[in-house]
């Protein structure tokens, strides 16, 4: 059965009016009703509306209409009515209650579509239906699929019995339409028919990609960019055979076609196939003129949608490529993040976050905000993120890392003024210390496991790219299970809310006991009001539950500064490795520890410290009092020195060094096969209120 929208949008629809009493009997009618309807006995007066309906008054739609009229409401339904000059026909019937005077208590407004032989006769009606008001409605969307369906519905309502819209596949694939040697690949976006026969969509499915053979009317339309009419040639068996779709023979038998090209920006984006069934008036030159005017406007709308979708896809690809796809941290640290764009149309901005696992069971936690919105801010953000990744691998402290970022922003600002704020923290999961530095950023929030939350007092330097003053940092001792919250100003500030109120609200979310709640629940609570704010800024939120690596997974020794310490180191590493069920790592670790200790004693003074850490990797560290960082030598054949670090470099997964307040640390890592061997010590677990008991994961 045809739906309401398809019936009432026909340009040649005929409207009949019937007056009814509370019982649903006809007490008044207009002249058209007497000519069109076929009542029992030939008289309309006194009969029930149900007497005109095929199937009688038992149908639910009719009962709903009569109930609505009696209760003073308005209702609409599709009823199949008896007519004088044709078979029963579907009509849209609207019942409206009438009050205030004697006579009918309700009006039944009946809209009857014309017979197929009466459609498409008046060019003025077709032009009006195709070109007036309809584009204003269709132009409100930029979704290609929705727009295609809307355009095809217009064509079917006013111009042809069946229509389908095809575009070049490259149009949807965000590529410029291009001619190919074997013809373009065409994607069918929409199909519609006035009788809603599902056979059309089954035979010519939406989403199908086809390539037309040279010399066909479809290839001719794309190649020339001009309309191509196709008169009826009776049977359509040859079409069904060439398409290898038998149902097409019955659907297209006796039908005529008109292909309307969709031309925009000097290219043919696709075409609309208009089909009139047997018995309808064939397409003529005036139809072609009207159809081309419609197709020209439709092509502009489709091209605008294509450009919007391509730009949006480019912006989203840029944003997704710039934001981290995965956060890393030591096994004892749980990290969650959330990013919300400030503008749903642009969906890109300058806010970012980072969680970068560092050697020695440490992690860098970073949140920043580039001033401005859109692609320009996102590009600058991408530059800063790339620099942060590099600085983190150099193992620079937070203050020095921000100093380097400040110099980078000043160089960027020579061409295009920009500035950014950033909070940079490094947590050591072995010692439990947290070093924090800030450049113009809002203070981080620290939530104690059993105490209250507090904003850390970190002296903020000017934003990156503005000042040249020194950037300092502070170090805090962190209790296991504490929450560390980094955020951008979009979370706590908006047009309708002062920043102090936003900070108080954020602190209230992380109240007493919140450190033991699931981080996902805390994220939702923190973003509850922000998500509904249409005038918000971009929001980046990073929450980390901090905990030290368990002492049972660490081993540390202080060795004297003489060469006999290398032999002692080889003996010391055996016991902890066997305790951790890593006996297979003993020979390799002995060699690595021996080389690192020997190198430290040879180039530094005083005792050295050897430390083993069993986390996601097996870490071996040697600390000494010399600030000079080692480097690889290309030792010659007769050199007695310079091969120790080469051995470490070749045998370990990775190695490196970093300065400390008292000297330096040289380290190396060995990968532990996963899944972990049976009997390996379990990771630290926190009994969060959800009761899941899952290991801390990184998202």
Architecture overview:
This protein is of the alpha+beta class and 699 residues long. It is 31% helix and 26% strand. A 6-stranded antiparallel sheet has the order 8-7-6-11-10-9. It has a 5-stranded antiparallel sheet with strand order 2-1-5-4-3. It has a 5-stranded antiparallel sheet with strand order 12-21-20-17-18, covered by helices on one side. A hairpin with a 3-residue loop joins strand 13 and strand 14. Helix 4 runs parallel beside helix 12, helix 18 packs antiparallel against helix 20 and helix 20 packs antiparallel against helix 21. The longest helix is centred in the middle third of the chain and has 38 residues. The protein starts with a helix and ends in a 28-residue tail after the last strand.
Topology:
Layout: H1 4-8, E1 14-20, E2 26-29, H2 31-36, H3 60-70, E3 75-81, E4 89-97, E5 106-112, H4 123-131, H5 134-138, H6 144-158, E6 162-168, H7 169-172, E7 185-193, H8 198-203, E8 209-211, H9 217-224, E9 228-230, H10 237-243, H11 247-252, E10 256-264, E11 267-276, H12 285-322, E12 334-340, E13 349-358, E14 362-373, H13 374-393, H14 398-413, E15 420-428, E16 433-439, E17 445-447, E18 453-455, E19 473-477, E20 482-487, H15 499-509, H16 519-526, H17 528-531, E21 539-546, E22 554-559, H18 565-572, H19 574-579, H20 586-603, E23 608-614, E24 617-624, H21 644-651, E25 654-660, E26 663-671
Antiparallel strand pairs: 1-2, 1-5, 3-4, 4-5, 6-7, 6-11, 7-8, 9-10, 10-11, 12-21, 13-14, 14-15, 15-16, 16-19, 17-18, 17-20, 20-21, 22-23, 23-24, 24-26, 25-26
Helix pairs in contact: 4-6, 4-12, 6-12, 12-13, 13-14, 18-20, 20-21
